[in-house]
Every structure is written in structure tokens, then in C-alpha cells.
Design brief:
mainly alpha; MetI-like fold; about 70% helix; transmembrane; Peptide/nickel transport system permease protein; MetI-like; cell membrane
Amino acid sequence: MSELQTEIETKAKTSPGRLARAWDSDLAYSFRNNPVAMVSAFVVSLLILAAIFAPLIAPHDPFNPATLNLMNGFTPPGQANQFTQEYFLLGTDDQGRDVFSTILYGMRISLFVGFAAVMLALVIGVLLGLLAGYLGGWVETIIMRIADIQLTFPAILVAMLIFGIAKGITPPEYRDQMAIWVLILAIGLSDWVQFARVVRGATLVEKNREYVQAARLIGRSPFSIMVRHILPNVLNPVLVIATISLALAIIAEATLSFLGVGAPPTKPSLGTLIRIGQEFMFSGEWWILFFPAVTLLALALSINLLGDWLRDALNPKLR
């Protein structure tokens, strides 16, 4: 008994832990040997952390009217205001708001809308894709015809239509409070199609595999087979699509806010800041537009590059 216990303890000490196994995995090896993926991950992590800890990092609260001073308006970046002698790293806008602080707070809204919209699209698309691929018949026909019809319209127009309808049925006194949630609903409902199509195609392949037939023979319900057996095997392409869709959702939110149908002016996102900045671009106050636009570009580009690496790393044909 003591020899068996000693052997077990020896194996436990020599076997690598979970972190060591994860570090030695093919995915981690591919990440360590891809400089573009490492730089993209660093930029995305830096921007997300800056947005999360915005109240601690931002020198001012740009959305608190009590802290604003109109005398600080149009202060160039890296200079002290000639009236108040206050210093602003990235300058100020027309209302005297610190541009650096507005970018940090604006990123919080853009990232929240992007993540929430992608999660909504993912849940709807994966559910409908599983149903269409596994059940087939009239269920598949209805779901995929709806998807085909939606694909004939640009996603941004679908989002604008859904946003307009949802905002129209919202009571006027709650429109500003519900604007962010309506925006999430609009972007999420306009992006579910790509998830559904990919999951349906993967489900059509997986449902004819031996392990699914074995699950049917032992009496598993269709719902249990879809959730416990098929779903884990179709998550790799879903993860890649979700990563790329996050960048597209952030851009869609910025586009809607730039057009004036997105985030309210009381809680501006990066798109709203860009819309405000373009009004002053030709009058010499270039920094009001430039810095939010560069932040949006860096965020979307880094997420896209990270999604491209993830697609290649999870593709077994490229290994």
C-alpha cells in the first residue's frame, strides 16, 4: 500500500500542472511565435484595462457638468490653457472636456456595446444554427430563408432599422436611459446570421458522426445531443467569428453614433466623439477628432489581427 501511495505521489509531482500544459499547447506555441498576435493582444489588453479602470486613470470626469470649465475649451494637446493654466495631455474639446478622459470613458461604452452585442448575436446564431442543422426539414428552411433575406441588406441598415423601431416603441422619458440597450439589441440582431450559417454547416457534418449515433442509441434527447455532444465540437469556428465580430460590432456602434442614432450625447462613445470632432476639424482643432479616431482604429485593427491569428491557429489544415 505504501509503495502504491509513493508511486502516486511521485507521478503527481512529475506530471505538469494545468498552466504548464496550457503553456506547452499548440495554441500557446503558435501565439508565442507570432509577433503580430502578441502585439495585438498587448494593445487590446491595454485598451480594455484602460477602459475598465477609467475612473482611476482619467484626470477628469468628462460627463460631470460640475467639473467642466468653458474657459478650458479648445486647449491644444500638451499645452497649458492660457486662461486657467490647466494642463491637458490630449487637449480639450469645445466644452472644456479633457479629450484623454473622454476617450477612456468613451471606450467603456464602445467595448460594452461591442461585447454585449456579440454575445447576443452568438447566443441567437448558435441556437438557430444548431436547430437548423440537426432538425432539418421545415425548421431549417424557415431559419435559413430568414438568414438569406437578412443577408441581402447591409448589416448597418438592418441595425438602423431595428434601432429606429425599438427606439420608437420606447417611452420618450426612457429613451436616453435605454439608448445603449437598444443599440446592443440592434447590432446583435443584425449580426446573428454568420453564426447561424457556420454552426449549421458544422452541425450537418457532426450529426452523422459515430458518437452522435451512439448517443441516439442510448436514448439521449435531441436537446441533450445538440448541447452536450455537438455544441462543444463546433465552438472553434464560433470563437473565431466572435473575435472578428467584436471589431465589427465596435465599428458598427461607432458608425451609428457618428450618424447620430447611437449612444446619447450624455454618454458619448468613440463614435460620438468622432462626430463631435469632425465639426471642428476644418477650424484648426484637429485633436478633437484625431485622438478618438486613432483609438478606434487601434482597437478595431488589433482585435481583427488577433482574430486572424486565432483562425489560423485553430485550423487543423494549417498545422
